[in-house]
Design a protein that fits this description.
- GO terms for molecular function: methyltransferase activity.
- One of its GO terms (biological process) is methylation.
- It is a single chain.
- The chain is about 25% helix and about 30% strand.
- It is of the alpha/beta class and about 250 residues long.
- It has a single domain (about 1-240), classed as Vaccinia Virus protein VP39 (Rossmann fold).
- Strands 3, 4, 5, 6, 9, 10, 11, 12 and 13 form a nine-stranded mixed sheet that branches. A two-stranded antiparallel sheet has the order 1-2.
- Strand 1 (about 1-5) and strand 2 form a beta hairpin.
- Helix 1 (about 25-30) packs parallel to helix 2.
- The longest helix is centred in the first third of the chain and has 14 residues, at about 70-85.
- The N and C termini lie far apart (about 40 Å).
Length: about 250
């Protein structure tokens, strides 16, 4: 087990030494949520809690619920909630079979970083925790449907996913949500986007928006040791800055 700093130590996260470990993706997801104090937020598949805890550090006064199917990660999330002083309830559950109590709530925001890889077309990870986190056992359609169902009117659902899954994700979200927006994330200037942030609104009627890509790293290639994050992304990862869609 290791304890790692996020947002320059504003969030301290216990996570397994081996297996799935949070990287920058949940931090970018958290930075994109346009939440305000007093609102309720649900994270589906929270792992050890990196995303919602980073959001809690940026926007005080939010009330969180988070769902995690793996017992070990749910326990870590509870420990991390306590040690970081967040207002959060962790539910150990399959997102397709949420507890009745949780199903009574509606949320202003739902966020999720679903497993990226289709298990039928990828190699399983040796570590069971990492395999569940990265390999899609629950179909993406279920993630989207559950997120949409848990939203209050005008609430937003935001996903981070691999760019090649964007057509599928847009199709699924369009069946439940409106006002869809996509923020592409490219590793370096001139490269194709590898990740996308996608947001939809319950009852939204605005036209679809494809925003200009955000570049994660400076320079055309990684030429030196150490990090090369752009100033914008460095502010997100180190200072807890927001990452707005527009």
């Amino acid at each position: 087990m290791t304890q790692n700093d996020f947002l320059n130590g504003r969030v301290r996260l216990w996570q397994p030494k081996d297996g799935y470990r949070a990287g920058v993706d949940p931090v970018l997801l958290a930075a994109s949520i346009e939440a305000r104090a007093g609102e309720r937020v649900l994270e589906l598949g929270c792992g050890a809690g990196a995303a919602f805890l980073c959001l809690a550090a940026r926007v005080p006064g939010l009330v969180f619920h988070a769902v995690e199917i793996q017992s070990a990660y749910a326990e870590l999330a509870r420990r991390n909630v306590e040690e970081n002083g967040a207002d959060a309830t962790i539910w150990e559950a399959d997102l397709t079979a949420l507890p009745e109590t949780l199903r009574q709530f509606q949320f202003h925001h739902v966020l999720a970083n679903p497993p990226y890889f289709d298990r039928t077309a990828s190699t399983r990870a040796q570590d069971a925790g990492r395999d569940v986190a990265m390999g899609e056992a629950t179909p993406l359609a279920d993630w989207v449907a559950v997120a949409a169902k848990r939203l209050a009117p005008k609430g937003t659902a935001t996903f981070i996913h691999r760019a090649e899954r964007l057509p599928e994700l847009l199709s699924l979200m369009g069946a439940h949500l409106g006002s869809l927006e996509v923020l592409p994330l490219q590793a370096r200037l001139g490269r194709a986007a590898g990740l996308v942030l996608v947001r939809g609104k319950k009852g939204g009627r605005a036209d679809f928006q494809l925003h200009a890509p955000v570049t994660l790293h400076d320079g055309a290639a990684h030429l030196r040791d150490g990090e090369s994050y752009s100033a914008k992304i460095r502010a997100v990862l180190r200072d807890g800055a927001a990452l707005p869609f527009g």
